[in-house]
Amino acid sequence: MEVEFKHRPSFTHIVVQLNRGESISAEPGALVGHSSNVSVNTTTSRDGLVSSAKSMLGGESAFVNEFVAEGGAGEVELSPPTPGDIMQHQLEDETLYAADGAFLAASDGVDIDSEIGGVKSMIGGAGLTPLALKGTGTAFVDAYGGLETLDLGAGETYTLDNANLVAWDDSVEFSTRRVGDLKSSLLSGEGLVFDFEGPGRAWYQTRDFEALADALKPYLPTNGQ
User: 46 partner at 20 to 30 Å CA-CA among 136, 171, 182, 218?
Assistant: First the structure.
């Protein structure tokens, strides 16, 4: 499998060249186009995948689209719904956690699991459903805005807002907490944050789509007007 990134970094999409028999699974709605010898299968069977639907679209999807090159090499173009960058991460018998809405696609050999043990129970009450991308293969996650890398040394700590968090590797420790009480959270626009401790790496986006939506609300018609 070969991948070309186009229109980086503001409007990134990927063009994936698949060898015969290779496949890539993608978030519903990510498809831009594909060559005629690529078959498309919509399935729920890939290790119980529950897709982390983009917050802008609302709801969740229990489906994943699998693109398979048949009868020769094939091409698939994939794009996230928001403008920004895409990260390609190579997994070598390890786990990458993708924040809610950040998963774009994954190659053969990557199992996608929404049941992240204590992680799900820890933050499920906040409506967050991160995915665990496990195994050996290539994973793609997308960011709204710029994509930044946070490298933490042993014992080094850093706090990220949940709306900006994109992904983190399984070597970094983390905990979650509320910023202030319920009233201050609602009024300030702040809420759940992640406290990370190294060694390890995390990735975050420079923009918050929900903040943009809130900023646009006063300018949008209401009650059918």
Answer: 171
pTM score: 0.81
Collapsed DSSP state (helix, strand, coil) of residue 35: coil
Split into its structural domains, the chain has a count of 1
Full residue range of the structural domain in which residue 191 is found: 2-207
**Which amino acid, residue 223?**
N
Q: Which residues contact 133 (CB under 8 A, 6 or more apart)?
A: 91, 95, 96, 97, 98, 103, 106, 110, 111, 112, 113, 139
Q: How far apart are CA 112 and CA 79, in angstroms?
A: 19
Is residue 213 very low, low, confident or very high in pLDDT (cuts 50, 70, 90)? confident
CA nearest neighbour of 195 among 210, 171, 178: 178
CA quadruple 197, 87, 191, 193: dihedral, nearest 10: 0
* Residue 201, domain CATH: 3.60.160.10
Residue 44: what pLDDT?
A: 59
Q: Tell me if 215 is assigned to some domain.
A: no
Tokens 């991160």 sit at which residue?
130
Report DSSP state, residue 19. P
Where does residue 80 rank: exposed (0-12), middle (13-18), buried (19+ CB within 10 A)? Answer: buried
Give the residue with greater pLDDT, 190 vs 158: 158
